[in-house]
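Can't paste images in this forum, so I'm doing it all in text. The chain is below; anyone willing to post the predicted structure tokens underneath?
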Amino acid sequence: MSLVPTLPTIPEPAILTCIASVNEARAMRIAEILSDFRHLQHFIANIRANPSAEEYYEEGYCVLRQCAGEAQALLNQPFDCQGPEPDGNDEEEKAQLQRVMMDASIRRFKIQQTYLKASAALRWVNSRTVILGGSQPQSVHAPALQQITNTMRSELASVTPARVELSLRSQDSIHGKWLVEDPTWSAMEQIIRTGR
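Text version of the structure:
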């Protein structure tokens, strides 16, 4: 009698079914990530801030234009789906889904970062509108305008990779999403840095 426990063997069809169901979960997760990306893109694309000629170069409006440019650049990037077609092979399908998930996750991460910056700039625009009450800026407005600019700068500085990752993971966890294979920021950063 052997003291080494023997592991039960799992029949090959059961393993293939398990792999296929995990690949389905991966595909569903990619769809969720891309849906989030699309919603954030839509939000940014629909920002309507119409500064006067005098306000055009005010910091908050510049941030909004920068965010719109970042969002457009993300849309213009081709998706990275390199690699062979799976041809019904579950392992090839897994590898392809993981590549697509990485690409989708990087896009969502970047658009979330842009969204957080745009939100800070929109709060600045709204606060500025309230402070000015439809009139031109005057010296009496200077302290309040400086305060909202300082607040926006502080909010922009807080949009770190760690904060972006935490905000995404928190939202996903609240909604009970499958996060087992979501890439971390460090994994995404490595891909971004190597340009793959």
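Residues 189 and 195 are 10 Å apart (CA to CA). The two ends are 53 Å apart (CA to CA).
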